[in-house]
Q: What sequence folds into this?
């Protein structure tokens, strides 16, 4: 086994043991790359750099294929955007927590699940079936053109954006506890 391959195997085993946030294949943090161990990527994740910035406008798609501008997703209330994919183990851990929090806060905060729909690993059909099978009711839209990467700097999923007005107040780039999400929501509403 050559040295590079040996190190790749060692790193893959180490990261599998430590855990890493899921990512799509086009970011620096793929399951086949030398991703930093869990929590180390949080400080360097570029999605954190948009905290405090105004939310850029970009388009996603509804289940019926209609173009939806990000501005259309923002309601009168504060908003939470969760970028996810059904194949992602970390998203599979986070989504039940999001659903529970959504049920508690849906009358006071707008929630939107933005599915990272790359067309191969994640299709709209797979995402819709996953949501249906799990009984999730959080509204979802589909990012079919990598808009979340371009405009929200998503590197890993799940990534959550807490938005007040048009300002990104907080970004979570890892699986979070219900308590931490609720604290962020309460802060967002004040």
A:
């Amino acid at each position: 086994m050559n040295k590079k391959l040996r190190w790749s195997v060692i790193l893959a085993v180490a990261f599998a043991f430590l855990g890493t946030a899921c990512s799509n294949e086009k970011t620096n943090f793929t399951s086949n790359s030398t991703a930093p161990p869990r929590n180390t990527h949080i400080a360097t994740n570029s999605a954190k750099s948009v905290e405090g910035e105004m939310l850029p406008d970009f388009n996603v798609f509804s289940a019926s294929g209609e173009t939806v501008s990000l501005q259309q997703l923002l309601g009168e209330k504060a908003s939470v955007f969760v970028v996810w994919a059904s194949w992602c183990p970390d998203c599979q851990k986070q989504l039940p927590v999001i659903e529970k929090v959504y049920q508690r806060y849906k009358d006071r905060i707008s929630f939107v699940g933005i599915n990272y729909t790359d067309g191969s690993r994640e299709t709209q059909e797979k995402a819709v079936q996953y949501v249906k099978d799990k009984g999730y009711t959080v509204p979802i839209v589909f990012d079919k053109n990598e808009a979340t990467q371009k405009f929200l700097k998503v590197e890993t999923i799940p990534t959550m954006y807490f938005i007040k007005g048009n300002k990104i107040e907080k970004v979570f780039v890892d699986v979070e506890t219900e308590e931490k999400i609720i604290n962020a929501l309460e802060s967002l509403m004040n």
In short: The helical segments are 3-18, 40-44, 70-73, 89-105, 124-134, 147-152, 178-189. The two ends are 57 Å apart (CA to CA).
